[in-house]
Model the fold of this input.
Amino acid sequence: MTSGNQRYYRIMNTSVSLKSEIPEYVVGERILDVGSGGGVMLDALEKKFGDSKTIIGTEISPIAMEYLSQKKTETKSHWTLDKHNFVEGVYPIKVDTIIFSSILHEIYSYTFLHGRKFNLASVTTALDNAYDSLNPGGRIIIRDGVKPRDYKDIKSVTVKSPEGIEFFNRFINDFKGYPTVERNFKIEGNKITGPFGILMEFIFKYDWGPVSYDREIHEQFGYLTNSAYNEILESMGFTVTASRSYFEEGYREFFDALFDQYPQFDTNQFIIADKLAPRP
Done:
């Protein structure tokens, strides 16, 4: 395995350990994991609950569906798999907990809605349909990237090597996120100065490395601030019972290895929102 692949899987493993805490917050008997991907969350749910709860994974990618189907057969797992897209509609049966773990930023980045991608309506539509898919007293759990409140502010990052500048030049040409933010950047030696939100996305893309570039370059990881998320959920009828943004420590060793300087910022947010009353 190349060093790039090793870095990629080390970060993935760190992320897995944090995701494994999500089952502690599950309520009810029927649990839905949205965008199950490689099945990390499904495995964590089955480890905690066995077959005492109904665990459902959803996907829309044929490749992921094929992979998960094979995995289910090989591991003799109890969870089930279904093809469903929350942007397109409610889930056909009511559930008690819906988990959106690192998937809503992909919905935001890849969904072509009303003539464009990077459209917040894709996220709000998915959340709205999730609300209607829950039983009374049901819950959604969101773990995802967080958009900095100061995303338009001009800040600087200094990479450790000229390769970082080459990576940035490739990144800024390919990255289509933050379409309304003016892209005024200044490069002095290994120092890059410009709008913080886009710089933050560069930090993440450079951190993940070239092995995942072709996938990550299409995604805007920070798409909503924590406070904006809370307001949207409350307006839909959810009661936000827990919400915070934080710096996920698994990133620090990689950031420190690649940058002499980067702004301090939160990387992720974690939200629990409950369906405690009818819509307003």
